[in-house]
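Appendix B. Raw example, untouched.
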Amino acid sequence: METDKKELEDEPLAEADALECDVSADECEVGVTDREGDAVASEASLREEIFEAFQPVTEVVVQSPVDGLPVPANERGDLAIAHPFTRETVVCVEDDTSYVELFAEELEARGWLHESEDRFKLNLTGDSVFRVFARSRYDETGLERSRRLYHPEDVEKRFGVHVVWTEDAPSPLAFPVRMLRERCRHFMRQVMANDDVPNPKEPGHLLRFYNCTARKSVGGAYMTLRDEAVYACDYRVPNDESSSEKYLESFDRKRLNSKLHLEMVRPFNLG
């Protein structure tokens, strides 16, 4: 019997009968000092219980100067808000804050007919003709000319085209001009009703969608531009030379000229 009891103690999964489960009261008693030490060491004061329940605050909370909500005093950073919709952050939209002249090489693609050396005409209804004067993109030496810049108040719209009158010729002539940056042809907009706000007079009824039709997902959906910033884009038609040079051409040119792939960098800032 002693041997069987020893085997049961060594084998935790062994089955025991009813007789082997009986224990005496002495074997079940546990004194106050048997496991937790003496009585004094096992006592907990009221102050310690309060400290354990309420941990001391290590950060000072102050009012945010942005929205007035409570924030930690050492927290720094701007609010997570959408990018602003401006001419500088969305290159897809037009920039009509100023106008630039159109060169002669650009007029035929816009429907103008070359009439003489520097004269172009636009056929109107009937026998009417609207004539303009345009300089070549290049001067006599082959150097590229700088575009003339005009203020919006100096621009007039005649027969559906923007022109500026000049006194360079014996009689006033019209120079064709365009916006500093015309709207991209791939930039499309929609305004639809919000079913969650069915009343047209309530705020939030109108949903505005901005998409780039030049880029699609794998499933064929157009890329959304709402609340997005587009600083430069090669998909743009017509191309914007200013933003492309600032964000694309200069960046790639710097990488190509620097030859960073030939420079070995030491790990862990070791010299």
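End of appendix B.
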